[in-house]
Amino acid sequence: VQLQASGGGLAQAGDSLKLSCTASGRSFSSFAMGWFRRAPGKDRECVAAINWSGGGTYHADSVKGRFTISRDHAKNTVYLQMNSLKPEDTAVYHCAADPGVTSAHAMGVMTSYEYHYWGQGTVVTVSS
User: Which of 30, 100, 111, 122 is spaced 20 to 30 A from 12 at the CA atom?
Assistant: First the structure.
């Protein structure tokens, strides 16, 4: 079972990037899925999460209005559309899921939870 993140890269302030996280090995359709980031010297932050049905989402205050999470069950993939990027968005972005977590809000507030499935990171670097 693997979560494969992609789509990171170099961007300038104001640009857009779209991250993808594709799950393989099992279906994740019953789990909430989330995007997390860790910047140097900072704590892990849940950037956005989406519940199992896609009908409920969580977005951190730092990205509200700029980032949008979505999912495609048929493709077993979750996306993070990132618009109006800022230098402070520079970080390693990971996707995550857990059989015990079905709520997007829960993913947003459980800051230290050890997720069962944790994908390798994709690096986003935003220059000013």
Answer: 111
10-residue stretch averages of pLDDT, the chain, 128 residues long: 93 98 87 94 95 90 97 93 98 94 90 90 97
> Residue 125: CB partners within 8 Å, gap ≥ 6?
9, 10, 11, 90
Distance CA 19, CA 13 (A): 17
Proportion of the chain in helix, strand, coil states, percent, rounded to 5: 10, 45, 45
Cα 124 off chain centre by: 12
Q: How far is the CA of 16 from the CAs of 7, 104, 109, in angstroms? A: 11, 23, 26
